[in-house]
Description:
Elements: E1 9-10, E2 17-18, E3 24-26, E4 29-31, H1 33-40, H2 48-55
Antiparallel strand pairs: 1-2, 3-4
Amino acid sequence: xxxxxxSSAVCVACGCQLSAEDIIEEGGDTFCEDCYIxxxxxxxxxxxxxxxxxxxxxxxx
Length: 61
């Protein structure tokens, strides 16, 4: 899963400078916490059935 490095680096997504305790490395890339969360945790609908019913309305007879 996510590992931490022991030196300072730059976030590959936003370019901010990171201190040693803020570095998150995933798949060979270095991220800040905000960019890691945004890139790995996709927003999902709260109610999947509501989304399904909107996208697939009942057919009219």
